[in-house]
Fold:
Amino acid sequence: MDENILNTKLSYEEIKQDDKDYFMPVFGDRLPIAVEKGEDYYIYDSNGKKYIDMMSGIATNCLGYSDKGFKQTLKDQIDKICHCSSLYYIEQQSKLAKTLSQAVGENYKCFFGNSGAEANECAIKLAKKYQGDKQHILTLRNSFHGRTLGTLAATGQEKFHKSFMPLCPTFIQFSTIDELKAKTTEHTGAVMIELIQGEGGVNPLEKNFVNQIDKFCKKNNLLLIVDEIQTGIGRTGKMFAFEHYNISPDIITLAKSLGNGIPIGACVAKSHIAFDKGDHGSTFGGNPFACAAANFVLSQIDHYMLKNIKEKSDHIFKRLAAYSPRGMGLLIGFNAGGVKNIDVVKKALEKGVLILTAGFNTVRLLPPYNITIEALDKAIDTIIEIMEELNESTEL
Ligand SMILES: *Cc1c(COP(=O)(O)O)cnc(C)c1O
Structure:
């Protein structure tokens, strides 16, 4: 292999061409910049242009890009060791498991994978194992829980299958409490929900609805799985979104903000909902490097940070009031209305602000927690300006 690749600087056009020629086209045409680096709550592209970051790598870079403690933690861990097998005890992993389990509640245990999808796979396998014959899982219409599942079906060894037949779980969708009740049968073992649908359009579930789901699950011995991959680790102004709802889920899943950009996912379950030896595993999952990153992130999410997130949230809600924003904390969406949400995203990119789409026609904001009110204001000025411009041009 050519060592020169390490020292060659590609132009934006070359990066784009190599992507087109050699990367599977799952992301289609990307937004038209190549990211070079991050600083504080700014992103720089390969031409040196600066952007205010209002999307945090999709709810991932919660501490922004210049956190000294985070960088030092990673450097120190690299100097020691990045990866070793979980066949051995790992101090960082034990620490993280304890901190995270205790943060969720009494009597929980963790498993670590490398992504949100893996955290959910773990949750689903766990529910299937626990519920025996009751293999159906109800999920909300419009939900998003990841892109894998089937890796188990592909594994050609009986012993890995036996607790989890049939291999592909049956998911049944619902939107209301009555529909949930109607669709629950003797085969139903779990209900899996996002408390605020992120990809689905920033749709917070009503408190009453969630409490009804929780009650129904308890009464019928269904496991309540809460997917907090986007909402967890402070994003909504509490450590976990379920704390807004006064429920204690049987299983919650985390990823995104947990590693501040280092890949890690966690499945946290009540201890009696348990695997046996050999039921599950991961080569990379929970390695020292990823756990060190997550330990650092968790050490930063304290009362002050959460209060600060709420204040910034209130500020955004006030400033965007005319657009009827919804969401919680620093996960906020509003309808693009008469214009297309992707056009708002593209225009914002041109004007140096990174934002996201979600759902049918939602504009989604997910700024890093360390963003300043000044930077937020600048970004919001730009967003409002774009909305006004686009609306005017559609009226003509
Ligand atoms: C992003 C996301 C996932 C998938 O996480 P990956 O790390 O992309 O696998 C699952 N559930 C929710 C709610 C998400 O926002």
Remarks:
- The pocket of pyridoxal-5'-phosphate is lined by residues 115-117, 120, 144-146, 194, 198-199, 227, 229-230, 255-256 (CB under 6 Å).
- The two ends are 57 Å apart (CA to CA).
- The longest strand covers residues 108-113.
- Residues 3 and 173 are 51 Å apart (CA to CA).
